[in-house]
Amino acid sequence: MSAYTLFASRLLFPLHERLKRHDTVAILRELERSQWLDTAGLQALQLERLRRLLAQAAARVPYYRELFAQAKLTAADFRSLDDLALLPVTDKALIRSQGSAWQAEGAVDAAWQQTSGSSGEPLRFLLGRHRVSFDIAAKWRAMRWWDVDIGDPEAVLWGSAIEHSAQDRLREWRDRLLRSRLIPTHDLTPARMDAILADLRRSRPRMLFGYPSALSRLAFHARARGLRMDELGIRVAFCTSEVLRPEWREAIGQVFGCGVANEYGARDAGFLARECPQGGLHLTAEEVIVEVVDEAGHRLPAGEEGDIVVTNLAGPEFPFIRYRTGDRGRLSATPCACGRGLPLLAEIGGRANDGLIASDGAWVHGSAFNHLLRDLAGLEAYRIVQERRDQVRLLLRMQGGVPAGVADALIAAFRARLGGDVAVAVDAVDEIPPMPNGKFRHIVCLVDTAQPAPPHAREEQPA
C-alpha cells in the first residue's frame, strides 16, 4: 500500500465520512469481523436485525402498521428467517400506489433518491444516512478482498446521467483527493476509445469500475489495435449494473491483465453482492436478506432460478421488505473457497421481464436465448429485438462476421422456441449502442410489453 493510499484510507476518507455524519468506519470494522461468521451466526444476526426492522416498520410506517394489525402479527412472531413468508412480496407498483404511507413517520437524516428507470418508470424513495453508510462500508470491505483500498488510483467508466449531473466542484475535488476519475462512456467511437485507452496508460489505475459492456468494448478495441494493457498494474475490474457475460469477462481479464469482479446492487434495494478473488459472489448478508422466489412469491431452494427478492435491514425510513428487484438469479448452497461465511449467489440471470413473445402468445424468458449465444466463438456483443410477434432480429457483433452455418443454426433454434412461422433475421453489425440511460440491454421486446408475463410462460433451464 502506497503512503498516499494509507493517508487516504486511514485519515482523509474517514474524515470525509465523519463530516457527512456517516458511521462508515465503525460499520466497516464490524463487517470485516462478521464476514467470517458461520452460517448459523450470520442467520442469527440477520434475524435480530429483521425483528428490529419489522418492529420499527410496524410502529412508524402506516402501510406496515395496518398490515401487521390486520394479520395480527408482531415482530416477535418472526422466529426464523423462513417466517418472512408471512409477509407479501412487494414491488415498485405497490410502493407507488401507497404514496406517503410507505414513509416512516418522524424519519430524519434521510434524502430523496430515485432509480434510473431502466425497467420502466423511476421510483422515488427515501435513503437514510445509516443505509448509505452501510452500502459504502460494504463496498469498501469488498475492495480490500482484492488488495485495493480507498485512495488507490481508480478509473470509473460510467454512462449514467445521474452521476454525471452530480459532478459538481466539491465532489470533483473530493474525487481528485481520493484519486478516482470519472470517464464518460456514452459515446464509444473508435477515436474516443483510443483516447480512453491512452488515458489509462498514462494514469495507470489500480482498479477499474464500470459497466461490463463498456469495459469489454474497450478491451475488444485494444485487442484489435494490438495495444498492451496488461502491464499497467491494474489489480481488478469491478463490473456492475449489467449482466456480466462470459465473453465480456474473458476479454476484460485477458486484455487488462487483471481480476474481474462482478458486483450486484441497486439504488433502491442496496449493495447486494460482490465477487471475491476465489470466484464467490458473496451476498452482503449483514445488510440484506436475499430470497429467490417463483411467480407466486414462494421461496425456491438453492440452485433453482427465480425472481430475486430483497429485504434491506438497514432502516425503516422507506422500507424495502421482500422487494422484487426485477432480476432473476439462483442462490448457491456451496461455501466459497475463501472461507467467508457470507452466502453466495450462483448466478444473476438478467431482468425478470427480459423475454420474447412466441407466435402462440406464450412468453419465453430470455434465459432460453442467452444460453444459445453464450458459447459462440468470437462473440463480442449481441442484442435481440422483437417489434412484432412474427419478426425477430438478432444483432451480432462478432470477430470476422457471422458464419453462414452459425446463422442457420441460430434461426432454427429461435424458431424452435418461438414458432416455425416467426421470421428470424441474423445481422452482423459493427456497433450495438447502449440504451439512453447508458446501460446495455441484450433483449428488447416491444410486443405486449405493457402486459405481465402469462402464467404459462415458457422457460428453459441452462444447459
TrEMBL record:
GO terms assigned for molecular function? ligase activity
Q: Which residues form the AMP-dependent synthetase/ligase domain?
A: 189-311
What are the boundaries of the signal sequence? none
Tell me the superkingdom of the source.
Bacteria
Q: Which UniProt keywords apply?
A: Ligase
Q: Which InterPro entries match?
A: AMP-dep_synth/lig_dom (IPR000873), ANL_N_sf (IPR042099), CapK_Type1_Caps_Biosynth (IPR053158)
The record's section on PANTHER family has:
CAPSULAR POLYSACCHARIDE BIOSYNTHESIS PROTEIN
Entry protein name: Phenylacetate-CoA ligase
Native organism = Azoarcus indigens
